[in-house]
Structures are given as structure tokens and as C-alpha cells.
Amino acid sequence: MKLLNYISLILIVLSTSIASAQISFEAKVSKKKLGINERLRVDFEMNQDGDNFNPPDFQNFTVIGGPNQAVSTSWVNGKRSYKKTYSYFLSPKQRGTFSIKQASIEIDGDVYKTSPITIVVTAAVNNPNDPNNPETIAADNIHLVAEVSNTNPYLNEAITVVYKLYVSPDTGVSNWREKDNPRYNDFWSQNIDIKGLKVQNGTYKGEDYRFVVLRKTVLYPQKTGKLEIEPLSLDVTIEVPTNRRDIFGGRLMTQGHKTISAGSRTINVKELPLNGKPADFTGAVGDFEFNVITTKTELNASESLQARVEVKGNGNLKLFELPKLTLPSSLEVYEPEHTENVSTNLNGMQGGISDSYTIVPQFKGKYPIPSISFSYFDLKTESYKRISSGEIVINVLEGPTNTTSSDNNIASVNNGKQPVVVNNQQFAFIKTNTNLTAIKPNYFFKSTGFWTGLLLPLLAIPLALIIRKKKQERDADVVGNKIRKADKLAKKYLSEAKKALGKKEAFYVALEKALHNYLKAKLNIETSDLAKDKIENLLTSRQVNNIIVLEFIQILKNCELARYTPITNVEMQQDYDKAASTISAIDKQFK
């Protein structure tokens, strides 16, 4: 019995020693959800000293501080405790869901690793409260403001958003870069180029400031109700005064980084009034002129003329359809050619759009082009207006006579089928005088064609066997067939983007559409309605490699950001090649 008690006591002591000697190495973060204008602290803690510490690469984050090393040792009731910490301060590069990957360290000859931590980066928060933010001293000296021209517009009425960076006289800014661009959901948007930044003097909340205009954007709301304009966020390199002075008494400056946001803005979009709304209204809003113009009103049959339907003025010119011409059936009409000559400034779209019809009359006579009308909503009077073109008569002077036309020789618009015109000379092509000659007999038997037709099938048999064998080998090559199928899909969906190489906006719109169409075909869903994290989860659930999924999501983000940033042809070609290789890789791994 005593021996059993001694054995139990020894086991308890050993287990206690083992537990006390257990090594731990873990990662801790200050928060798992933060705004893009906030800071994140990551601590890697261990309870025993180690060597060869290897931090993660902190992809999608910028390291603004660290590594800072701290060591603490304490004795409690004769028991020693030890803690060593490596600390990093991070700034997120963009919004999304990211992972702090594993760190590793070697302790007593063994390698220990931390567990990955998922971090969610949201849009900028209005009042970031991070005690580890080293730029707090400049919080009241730099402001990014979004000035909206009208927060209560009508549907399809132009509004402008001007982003201004205000800096106090005692603070300097040496550089900045955009961290988070607003996507302008439910708006048609157009950025206005700014050639050279000009520093101006102004006031902010009654105090003297200097400011520069960073961006001007014209928006046309496409939905009614409350719409949100997402915030623009900048990473600014600042210079602020310190309490130290140089040998001449001048105050020394210190440099740091600060993330600032313009904040989100809410736009309350009014619906166009239903009272007096024309039946043919197609959504035109603004101040317009409407005309129907023909290049000529007199010509001969089989000659052509141009009829142009045009709208000029100021408004949402690219966002509505022009009325269609209705023409007599005796006039041959080709599909219209659409032309846009539109420029965008702070007053919205200005210029004109037109549809040009090519018309070829077939018979002699007079043909009326009936009057057509164009209706739009006038913002000045807040009422609907209609403009009519007036009737135009086309006089065909010479040509065959249409026997179905009326006695007064005026053709009318034919809503039914076009009548068949009988020509009295319909058998004129038959010749009555012939010049026949005898044909020498040409026997097929034993001719060159005879022997060729006899031997060719025999020679084709071994060729067919070779082709069949090659086809069987190709069909058996499962990996090769999958690669060829993937490359074919990539070329299919990226063909439109390839045609638009060199045209930045057209290229990235086509590239983004190609990526969504590819996912739509593979997943049988409307991916344009899904967020990127859902697309990422869907691809991951189909056993697609995480690296390939992240590359695909990054290309989608590049498509959204490219229209707001300068892009070279080389970068466009790189994005195209990367998209093609990523689609091909996904198709190989897709299950």
C-alpha cells in the first residue's frame, strides 16, 4: 500500500513538472474587425526564449511599426514565469477579409508555429480610436472633405462630388496615395481629369486652411430612395512641428503617416413625377434640342440619302434611347449608325447623340417621313416637355413607277406587307437565238478520274487508322484534354477584353465582364450580384487552390480600381495575361 502511494506521488510530481514546462507560442491581435483608416497591433507571445523567429509576410497590410521586442520575467510563490513578445503595427492596404498567416520560432530544437488569424477590413470609420496610432497629433490639422452639389436630386439628374484636402498652415503634406476608392453603387459615374494640383487658400470651419482639389466626379443616380456614396480614403505622409528647435531657434518637424477619410454621404434621390409623364418617355432628363435632318429631299431611284435623328443639349445623353424613324415600305432602310459626341464636366454631360439612317428609294414618287417626337423632363421647370420634328417629304424624280401607289403619287406608310411588283420583262433573260456546237464524247472508264476514284479509298484506309489511333491517344490524355479545355474557355471569355487592349476603361469593363461570365458559366449563378468574399467561398468549396482564388479576386479588384488610376498598356497586358492564366488554372482544379 505504501509503495502504491509513493508511485502516485511521483506521477503527480512528474505531471506537474511537465505541465509547468509546456511551451506555448501564439499570436494575438488588438482587434479582428477594423476600418481601413485604423491600425492593427499583432503580438507574437512565447513563454520560453527561442531562436530564428520568422514572422509572416503580412500580405495586404503595410508594416508601419515593429518588430518591437519585449521580455518580462516574474517569480510568484517560488515559481518563475517568462514571456517574450514580438509586436507589429499594421495598416490595411484595402478592404476585404484577410489572414494573418503563421509565424514560427525554434525553441529547444523544435519549431513552433502560431495559428492563422482572420481579419476583416471594412470601409473607413468616422472616428477611429486606436491608442497605438502615432499620427494622432495631426488629427485636427488635416481633413478630407467630399463636397456634394445636390443631396436631393431627381432620378438621372447630374450631381457632382468634389474631394478637397484641407491642411492647416502649421502642418505639411509631402505625399499621399489613395487607399480605398468609392464604388458609386447605383450611380453612373464619370471622373473629370485634373491637370496639375493647385494649392489654394480657403477656410475650414471658420479657420484659415490651404487646400487642393484631388478629384472631381459626376454622378447620375440610377435608383430612387436613399443612396450612399462610399468614402474616399487616403494614406497621407505628414510633417508636424515638435517642441524641439534647431540652433537658429526654428522649430523642428517630424514626419509620419496618417489615414484620413472623407466619410460616407447619403443622397436622397427623388422619383420623376407621374403627372404628365408621356407614354413614349425613355428617361431623358435635362435641357435638350431635337431634330430630324436629311441630307437631301430630291433624288433619283437607287440613289441614297442620310436621315439623322439627333438630340443635343445638357443632360443624361448616354442614358436614354432615341426615337425610331417610321418610313414607307418603298424606301429601303439600313440599320442606323449610332454616334456620340459627348463631353463631361461639372455641369454634367454636354454635346449630342444621333442615329444616322441610310435610305434608298426604289420607285419614283413622293414619300413622306412622318413627324416623330421626343419627350424629356426639364429640370428648370420640373415638368415634361415634348419636341416634334415635323414631316419631311422625299421627292424621287426618276425611276420605275410603283403600280401600287395612289393616284396622287404620294406614298403612304405601309403597316402591312410590301406588295409584290410584277415586271413585264420578267422572262427577258431567256435567249431565243442560240449558237449550239457539238460536244466531243468523253468516256469516264479507264480515265484518270476513274483510277483516282478507285485507288483513293484504298489509300485512305491506313490514313484513317492513323488518325483514329491519334484520336484515341488524345481522348485518353485526361490531363491534356483538361488543359486544352481550360485554355479554350480562357480565350473564349477574354476575347472581348483582348480587342480593347490599349483602351483603359473599355478593357477593364470587358475584363470584369469576362470574369463574371466565366463564373456564371461554371457556377450557374449571377455572380454580378455576389460580393467578392462569397465568390471566394464558392471557389474554395469547389477545391480551387487558395492562391489561385486570391489572384482571381485581386484581378476583380484591379478592374474596379483601374478606371480611377493611371494604367499603362504594359500593365493592361499583364492583367490580361494574369486573367487568362488564372481562369485556366481554376478550370483545371474545378470540381
TrEMBL record:
Signal peptide from the UniProt entry: 1-21
Positions of transmembrane segments: 449-467
Keywords: Membrane, Signal, Transmembrane, Transmembrane helix
Record's keyword annotation contains Cell membrane: no
Any Pfam family the entry gives: BatD
InterPro entries: BatD
Protein name per the record: Protein BatD
Organism in which the protein naturally occurs: Formosa maritima
Lineage, uppermost ranks: Bacteria, Pseudomonadati, Bacteroidota, Flavobacteriia, Flavobacteriales
